[in-house]
Amino acid sequence: MTVRPIIALCWVLTACTRREPSPTATPGTTAPPPADPRVDTPASPPRAFGERVAERDALVRDLARQGVKHERVLAALRRVPRHAFVPDSVKGMAYADQPLPIGSGQTISQPFIVAFMTEAVAPRPTDKCLEIGTGSGYQAAVLAELCERTWSIEYIPELAEQAKKNLVGLGYRIELRTGDGYVGWPEAEPFDVIVVTAAPQKVPQPLLDQLAVGGRLVIPVGARSEVQVLERWTRTSLGRGAHAFTVDRLLDVRFVPFLGDGGR
Ligand code: SAH
Question: Model confidence over 190-203: pLDDT tens digits?
Fold first, then answer.
């Protein structure tokens, strides 16, 4: 595949970072915590949850200072051990608010971006949530903390394999698939929440088709060479079975490009 060397060179530049702050983050709502999303919660949970807690707390306080308000989202970021999702070579930087390389020229997004995108789709404990771009599995774990069920699709087989190890090792119950997320996950639709973590040039129609009425999709849109815009699409009912979408442009960002033909 010819694109990979280019992406490998570009990860530092095109990692999932914020370009400029935005005042349009969705205000928080309070809701009861979801059931524990982890499988057969072991008597003593995987050690990583109890490690580096002070660093995670400090990061989350910083995210709150940057404007993240949604309590359930902050609680999920406080709980998920980001250091368990990154390679040994960058573990020391796991709680800095910055993207990090995860191999195959891809990155784990900056924590602010994970929090901002998650807040923008405001997952509820009864929601079915789909992520496109599993990467390390970190954003999927954050969704699993907040949603009733979570699905995630990764294009690059090596990353999909590593993400599965990361998630299973921590006991997360997430449906994972290797393939092109452009087509979504038709067998499991409709989804209340869809989070896309790589940037296509336009929003994939199959993902819009798979959004439930009232559902929210958040996605970076734009060419690699341009400033991309993080957009939130909400499906609304017009009555009598007719639907429409409202689109909010939330933030200028830079994400890695959407792979496969569908992203062009
Ligand atoms: N959400 C990830 C990081 C995202 S980086 C995390 O929390 O670690 C973007 C990811 O999207 C990369 O792993 C990339 O391989 C994947 N990706 C890019 N195009 C894709 C596509 N068409 N279908 C599925 N995954 C894709």
Answer: 999 999 999 999 99
